[in-house]
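Aim 2 progress update. The chain analyzed this quarter is reproduced below.
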Amino acid sequence: MAWMSEDLGATWTHHPLNVRDMGYAPTVVRHRDRFLLMASSSAVYAAKSPLGPFEEVERIALKRDRSMPDFIDPMLFSDSDQRLYYYWGCSPAGGIWGVELDSNDVTKVVSEPQELIPFDPKKFPWEAVGQWNQNPRVGWMEGAWMLKRGSKYYLTFNAGGTENRTYAMGAYVSDSPMGPFVPQKRNPILRSVDGLITGTAHGSIVAGPNDELWAFY
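Predicted structure tokens:
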């Protein structure tokens, strides 16, 4: 389903979509003259409007080897030069991966897939799973999201386990959408372990009115 607001969130209108049961953690991006939609391990769908109707294209022709995480929590990113990228990752000990896609045929891969953000609990203890980040062998790096600001690329991710209050969002930065990425100075960028709202992760950051940044999680 989709929800639309014309007043920045005070009221919402529900718009049923013509696709069902695609999988969880969907992503949608405007690429050239159409909108691309996919979910975890799903095919890619395309439409002229973000509200559809969507038509199935095909699955991205990327074979998984043992070094890669499953194709879960996808993120599609269309750059200002109209090149297209695919990010994913959701595994207990793996990181966030990325690959460039053919901008004309979104199902084709045109670069080697790379691990862009590794799971590193020794350097970043907040990435470990647990209510107190007590399990350094498990991280569940997931929920990749790409944001471009000026000439910089910010790749955000989530770790700590979605069921835990320590679930948080971090960010790496690069001069290129395929890296190399380095952790930004302030990490994690969203983390709340006390009070009513905890586990402030698995979200997205977008530019809103007046070029302000809005975070959703």
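The chain has a mean pLDDT of 94. The two ends are 17 Å apart (CA to CA). These observations will guide the mutagenesis experiments scheduled for the next reporting period.
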